[in-house]
Amino acid sequence: MNKKTMNIKTDADFIGYDKYHPYAKQFQILKYRDGFHSTIPTGFFRDWLDEEPTTGTFYIGKGSGLGVGSIVKYDAGIQSLRVGRFVAGGLRLKFLLNGQHEMKTISTAMFSVFGHGLTNTPPPQYADSIIKNDVWIGDEMMMLGGGIIENGVVIGARSLLPPNFRSEPYGIYAGSPARLVRFRFSEKIREALVDIAWWDMPNLFSWVKEMNGCFTFDLTLDEEKTLDILRLVKEKKQLWIRDHQQ
Question: For the chain, which end, N or C, has fewer CB atoms within 10 Å of the first or last residue's CB respectively?
C-alpha cells in the first residue's frame, strides 16, 4: 500500500481507506476485513523541511491510532517506524527517527547544504523505531530514534524517550528521560500475558468479541484468580487456533 512515495504498510487484510468516516478530516482511516480500523493523523509524515517526505517506511497494525497533531520525521529512505496492533497514541506525539550529526569529526556542521562542492560525512543512523502491541502513549510524548517499546507498555504524557530506548513488557514509563515507574501487574501475570499475545489471534475481531468479558476483568484484584482466568484464556486460544487452522 503506497501513498505518494511514502512506503506505508499494514496487515494483509487491509481493504482500503474509509473516506466517509466521521473522523476522515482528522485522520486517514484504514479499514480491515474483520471490522477493525486504524487511524493515521493528517500531516503525520514530515521531513526536515516540514514537508511530506519522499522516502522512508511506516508500518501500522490494525486497531492502532495516533492522536491529532502527531508527526514522524524522516531524513532518509532507510528510516522506519513500526507500530504494532492496538497502540493508542495521544495528541501531538513526535517520533524523530534520526536528525543526528556526526560528532567524531572537526565540526558537526552539514556543509553539503551550502553547495559549491562542500561535503560532510553521512550522518549516523539509528536503527528502526518499534512500538509493539497493546501500548498506550500519553499526550506530547517525544520518541527519538532506535527505540523499542514492548507489549503492554504505558508511556506517560510529555515523556522523552532517549535514543535507543528499551522498555520491559507491561511497564509504566514517565519522565525526561523516561524511566520505569512501576509494572502494571505482578511478574507471573506479565509472563502469562506475554505468552497469550492475544493480538496475534486469527479472526481477531470475533475472538475479542467472544472473550470480551475476560478483557473487562480487573487483573490487579486477586493474583490467583487472575492467573486462573489467564489460563482459561490460553486454553481458549489454543482451541481457537486449532479450529481456525482446519
Answer: C
